[in-house]
DNA sequence: TATAAAGGTGAATCCGCAC
DNA sequence: AGTGCGGATTCACCTTTAT
């Protein structure tokens, strides 16, 4: 059998590409799928400026049933590609995470935590009609209830949290400023680029050096960039050629680090 | 038609009882359904004392399908009983909230917020195998996407939050100490009693004085107790006679307050 | 050059009523 | 049902421009 690819960006439809990869070839999955936001009208701030909406074609679905079918397809492939001691992270908002979570349970995943990304600088609710939506939700799951072993660097996380056990609420800022990748027009290159700090915590908590991390919705490559910085191998899949080009350039600019190493003992469930 | 009941505890199966109530008779629903926790083994503290787990008979379901069917049944009745300008709150943990949320969307509910109850004093993960599970999730939803109007006391919430817009993350302590109702044996009377502070925020944010609040899983009556203190009418449904007895006694001990009043202008969607 | 003021922006399911 | 208008509505950053 041919060895699985590593440290590579595959450009194309993630479901089709995952079907070409062998069973049980990755240690960790991080997935940031479309949220299916269904925004109705444009939103104006109190100062009369317009909020840049997420109106990308990749976030459009005909209905909930087609979103569900899409979710089952890519999630099922992720489960097949995961090693039997691997885990998966999926991030979403209240628009999609409940459907995604229910489908994960249906496919046999067994949840370890729901983790709340509490944004330190969220956009307010300008009209005063709801509570400020300051969070996104991550689901961390193993492949099955029966799974005996998975990687969790408990002590590293505890040390990161001033010596106290780390909770499932993470206060991390939005990706802005120099970290946010801009296009030639000076606008953000991707609507939903995630902060590296978020991926840093995910990858360092739940994988070892030398592990393979798969991201089926690679976007501008945050997962690959952080994986490379942390000495993990990575596989990125991205449908949009422009996003893929940006991601490849971004990751190529990061220097390769030394050989694999294990820094903490894995937890068992 | 007979007027709907008010300020009353109905003892029995919530689905059967809700079916006897007329359409559109309540302004607000708060529901804390069984969590379907699937604890495989008893949880043991490091000092070998046993943690009282949620293993009551009412929390067992054969499988995910029966939990879904149960959820659709009670949730559908709640939707029928809600007025067309009403909203519903449902609380759950990562064990059940994803299924509950997906079913709510399927039934036509339109989400306003997911609210994170961030416990200030959560139980640690004794074995160091996961992140501390410090949260529960509430879904706040209106009946349909087309719904034009609902109650939200934006300014009251803002005032409660030092003059800044309140976020969807609420730091509230677990229900302990004197507030936690004990049985004759000195043990907690109910395994999942919610803090009154949580219900206070829910009810004061999304209802007016004189409104009717329905809780189909009344337990020891926290919703009714807070509703009475805030000058709201309430309808509680509880299957367990002992819980119902405790709840009735608890609410009877609260003095009736003055006549209805509106303290803030309702938001419109 | 240092400090202050002004401007920009973030996965957003963000108005109600009269005509 | 669509349109138009009155009125109420924002937080934490970072970047750019002005003093």
Protein model, in words:
The first copy, chain A, is of the alpha/beta class and 269 residues long. Helix content of chain A is 26%, strand content 20%. Chain A has an 8-stranded mixed beta sheet, with helices on both faces. In chain A, strand 7, helix 6 (222-229) and strand 8 (233-238) form a beta-alpha-beta unit. The longest helix of chain A has 18 residues, at 64-81. Chain A is globular. The interface between A and B is large, with 47 and 49 residues. The first copy, chain A, binds a DNA duplex (19 and 19 nucleotides) through residues 34-41, 43-47, 49, 51-54, 59, 92-95, 119-130, 132-133, 136, 173-178, 180, 188, 191-192.
Order the strands across the largest sheet of chain A as they lie in space: 1-8-7-2-3-5-4-6
What is the first-to-last residue Cα distance of chain A? 31 Å
Largest interface, C-beta closer than 8 angstroms, per-chain residues? A-B, 47 and 49 residues
What fraction, in percent, of the residue positions of chain A are helical? Answer: 25-40%
The total beta strand count of chain A reads: 8
Q: Strand count, sense and closure of the main sheet of chain A? A: 8 strands, mixed
Quickly count the helices of chain A.
7
User: Mean pLDDT of chain A, as a whole number?
Assistant: 95
| Order of secondary-structure elements of chain A | EHEHEHEEHEHEHEH
Strand and helix layout:
2 copies of one chain form a homodimer.
Chain A: E1 8-11, H1 14-18, E2 26-31, H2 64-81, E3 82-92, H3 97-106, E4 110-119, E5 135-142, H4 154-160, E6 169-172, H5 196-206, E7 212-215, H6 222-229, E8 233-238, H7 241-252
Parallel strand pairs in A: 1-8, 2-3, 2-7, 4-6, 7-8
Antiparallel strand pairs in A: 3-5, 4-5
The structure holds a DNA duplex (19 and 19 nucleotides).
């Amino acid at each position: 059998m041919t060895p699985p690819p590593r440290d590579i960006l595959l450009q194309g439809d993630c479901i089709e590409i995952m079907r070409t990869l062998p069973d049980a070839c990755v240690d960790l999955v991080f997935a940031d799928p479309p949220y299916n936001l269904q925004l109705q009208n444009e939103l104006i701030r109190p100062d009369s400026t317009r909020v840049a909406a997420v109106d990308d074609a990749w976030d459009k679905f005909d209905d909930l049933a087609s979103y569900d079918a899409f979710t089952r397809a890519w999630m099922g492939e992720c489960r097949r590609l995961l090693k039997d001691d691997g885990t998966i992270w999926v991030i979403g908002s209240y628009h999609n995470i409940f459907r995604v979570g229910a489908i994960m349970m249906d496919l046999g995943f067994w949840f370890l935590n729901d983790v709340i990304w509490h944004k330190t600088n969220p956009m307010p609710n300008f009209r005063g009609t709801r509570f400020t939506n300051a969070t996104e939700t991550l689901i961390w799951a193993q492949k099955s209830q029966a799974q005996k072993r998975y990687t969790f660097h408990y002590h590293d996380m505890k040390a990161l949290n001033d010596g106290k056990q780390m909770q499932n609420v993470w206060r991390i800022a939005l990706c802005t400023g120099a970290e946010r990748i801009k296009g030639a027009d000076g606008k953000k290159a991707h609507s939903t680029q995630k902060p590296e700090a978020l991926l840093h915590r995910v990858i360092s908590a739940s994988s070892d050096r030398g592990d393979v991390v798969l991201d089926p919705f690679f976007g501008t490559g945050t997962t690959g960039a952080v994986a490379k910085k942390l000495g993990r191998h990575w596989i990125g899949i991205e449908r949009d050629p422009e996003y893929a080009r940006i991601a490849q350039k971004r990751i190529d600019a990061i220097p390769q680090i030394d050989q694999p190493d294990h820094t903490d003992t894995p937890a068992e469930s």
